[in-house]
Design a protein that fits this description.
Keywords: Coiled coil. The protein has 342 residues and is mainly alpha-helical. It has 2 domains: 202 residues; 132 residues. The chain is built from 9 helices and 2 strands; from the N terminus they run αααααααββαα. The protein has a two-stranded antiparallel sheet with strand order 1-2.
């Protein structure tokens, strides 16, 4: 359905009651796209602002009758815009709660990650302490191996010396020095036993040192894993912190929009009351016009970021509804069409 059709439908309702007018608008909107709906709202809003300004000019020139006719014709339009402003306000309230919930959810995630980070830090400290113990053990085993090697070399030297003496005396077993031969043989055998024992000790310490080295490597692997987990968590926390800050910023922008929309609801309510007044008063129309022209600021949260406007209320309102009309991916008003025609 074309916008002209909708405009004609509004014009034909001048004799209807307000409830009948709104019912007709809702029935017509069931066949409208979101874009057509918002374009219609842009057109009606522009019409209201222009008609109020024209009514003020008429009453200032003494043409009260024309002013009354103009204002009466705005009753249904003003009520429509007021109701759509209320729809915006409700959607923004929902968006505000959604952003608060997002901030709370992200904060919970960050707290959980901090707790996990503490566990990894604790595990790393325990592993580093264990690594220190293992290093001490390894050094002890290495020192033991060195001592065993020293004893082995010493005994081997004594063993060779005894062996040489033994070989020398072996040819004289029949002479009186045979007793010395037996003593040297016992010494040789004793040193041989000591050498074998020292060799076993040396190899045992070597195995223990190697096992300690493997334990140290496993501990280093655990430390590296703990550090990797801590790094991963830190990156995730930084990412969540950015998301939370983004949500905080959006929340502030949404709150700013809520304040503006509340002002808009009040403004259009006064417009409706003006159209229902029994007599036209210049000061009342003047007040509405001044409110429309009053400098105001608004942050419009769009799918492309936040737009900050510092214009008159009229310009801010028109910019807002035109932005909603053109910004198909605006997360704030993506459910607006459904709410407006329900």
């Amino acid at each position: 359905m074309q916008l002209a059709h909708v405009t004609n439908a509004w014009e034909k309702t001048s004799l209807l009651t307000n409830s009948g007018y709104i019912s007709l608008f809702k029935a017509t909107n069931k066949h409208l796209s979101k874009s057509s709906l918002n374009m219609a709202l842009v057109s009606v809003s522009e019409k209201c602002f222009n008609t109020i300004e024209s009514a003020l000019k008429a009453v200032k020139t003494g043409d009260i009758r024309s002013s009354e006719i103009m204002l009466k014709s705005l009753g249904n339009d003003g009520l429509l815009v007021q109701q759509q402003a209320s729809v915006y306000c409700d959607r923004l309230r929902e968006a505000e709660n959604e952003h608060k919930q997002q901030v709370e959810a992200i904060t919970r995630q960050i707290n959980e990650l901090y707790q996990e980070q503490k566990q990894h830090e604790k595990r790393k400290k325990e592993l580093e302490a264990n690594k220190s113990v293992l290093r001490s053990k390894k050094n002890h085993y290495i020192q033991g191996k060195r001592e065993a090697l020293r004893k082995y070399q010493e005994v081997e030297w004594q063993k060779r010396e005894a062996e040489e003496k033994f070989e020398e005396l072996k040819t004289f077993w029949w002479v009186p020095i045979y007793g010395q031969y037996l003593v040297v043989r016992e010494l040789f055998e004793e040193n041989d036993k000591k050498a074998r024992h020292a060799s076993r000790e040396m190899h045992r310490h070597e195995r223990d040192a190697e096992e300690a080295e493997r334990d140290i490597e496993r501990t280093n692997s655990g430390i590296r894993q703990a550090e990797e987990d801590m790094r991963r968590i830190s990156e995730k926390v930084e990412q969540l912190e950015r998301q939370r800050q983004h949500c905080h910023n959006n929340l502030g922008d949404v709150k700013s929009m809520v304040v503006f929309i509340i002002q808009a609801v009040t403004f259009w309510k006064e417009v409706v009351e003006l159209t229902r007044a029994a007599t036209v008063k210049t000061e009342n129309i003047q007040k509405i016009v001044e409110l429309a022209q009053k400098k105001d600021s608004i942050k419009i949260l769009t799918s492309r970021g936040t737009q900050i406007k510092m214009k008159s209320f009229k310009e801010c309102w028109m910019d807002l509804i035109q932005t909603i009309n053109s910004d198909e991916n605006n997360v704030i008003f993506q459910r607006y069409a459904k709410a407006a025609i329900s």
